[in-house]
Amino acid sequence: MERIKMLAETSPDHQEALDALRHVGNVGSHEGRRDFTTLIDCFEILELALEDLIDTRRTRLSETARKLVEAKGKGVSTPTLS
Question: Residue 42 — very low, low, confident or very high, per pLDDT cuts 50/70/90?
C-alpha cells in the first residue's frame, strides 16, 4: 500500500486502479479463488496502467503533432523508434 501511495504522488490518476488490484489480490490471497471475469478485469486494468506509466508513445506523438502544427506542416525531425 505504501508504494501505491508513493506512486499516487507522481501519478494520481492511477491510484484507484492500483487500489482495485490490491483489493482483489488481498481477497484472492486470504479468501481463496477469484472468478475468471474478475481476473480478466484486473488484467485489463493492469495492462492500461502499465501502458500509461511506461509507454511514452502517446507523449512522444503528442509532442510531434505540436511541433508539426508549430511548423505549419513543413516537417520536423523526430527521434527514431528503438
Answer: very high
Confidence of residue 41 (pLDDT cuts 50, 70, 90): very high
Cell matching residue 19: 487500489
- What are the backbone angles phi and psi of residue 56, rounded to the nearest 5°? -100, 10
Across 6-17, b (16+ Cβ under 10 Å) vs e yields eeeeeeeebeeb
Percent of the chain with pLDDT strictly greater than 90: 22
Instruction: Report CA-CA distances (Å) from 63 to 3, 51, 60, 66.
Output: 30, 18, 5, 5
User: What pTM did the predictor assign?
Assistant: 0.59
> Using CA atoms, how far apart are residues 22 and 79, in angstroms rounded to an integer?
37
**3-state class of 56 per DSSP?**
coil
